[in-house]
Specification:
The protein has three helices and eleven strands. By secondary structure, the protein is an alpha+beta fold. The strands form two sheets. It has an eight-stranded antiparallel beta sheet with strand order 3-4-5-11-7-8-9-10. Strands 2-1-6 form a three-stranded antiparallel beta sheet, covered by helices on one side. Strand 8 and strand 9 form a beta hairpin. The longest helix has 31 residues.
């Protein structure tokens, strides 16, 4: 570039031989931008199609912010995700304790107000299932509230097996009731 060269390019006239090339480049830039937008939409769609409830809960757990989860049975739990298993989530409620919610019993999950909605598209490889977690928990005989078939049962978790838990009720007889794990809407491990 010499000192006499203009700093700004000269506008091309329609009869200029480079006018066609400039138009072609402009069209290519528009096409490239449209292709990039289409690619982004396709990737967003793929991500949405790969979403799972466990993935959503994992995204929310990593944020450490409160969530609101509602079960099919009507239980609403609010607090941070404290743990996530292959088929359950634990919501830490400040005033009650840890609420174990089977994923099959969850109806809705909401992020904290103002937080971006999670997509949950990542694969989640979690090994522990609710029945195993309850077996481990039963060793400590914690005070629990178990909701099954619309009935809330309060007592001590005294044993758990492959598909059943036993709760010693806090009535005068200390009656032990067996509850099908699959019928459980939620288990609250009470704070003392």
């Amino acid at each position: 570039m010499d000192a006499d060269s203009p700093l700004e390019p000269e506008p091309l006239t329609p009869d200029d031989p480079l006018a066609g090339l400039a138009g072609w480049i402009a069209e290519g830039l528009v096409d490239a931008a449209a292709a990039e937008r289409a690619r982004r939409r396709w990737l967003e769609r793929q991500e949405a199609e790969d979403a799972s409830l466990a993935g959503v809960l994992l995204d929310l757990a990593e944020r450490g912010r409160p969530v609101t989860a509602r079960t099919i049975g009507g239980r609403t739990s609010r607090g941070p995700v404290a743990a996530l298993g292959a088929d359950f989530v634990v919501i830490r409620e400040e005033r009650l304790g840890d609420v174990m919610l089977p994923l099959a019993a969850l109806a809705t999950v909401r992020a904290a107000p103002g937080d971006e909605a999670p997509v949950g598209a990542r694969p989640v490889a979690l090994m522990i299932v609710l029945a195993e977690a309850l077996v481990e928990l039963a060793a400590d005989r914690p005070s629990v509230v178990v909701c099954a078939a619309g009935e809330e049962l309060r007592g001590d978790l005294c044993r758990a097996g492959r598909d059943v838990i036993a709760v010693a009720l806090t009535n005068q007889q200390r009656e032990v009731i067996s509850i099908a794990t699959a019928a459980t809407d939620h288990v609250i491990v009470l704070r003392h």
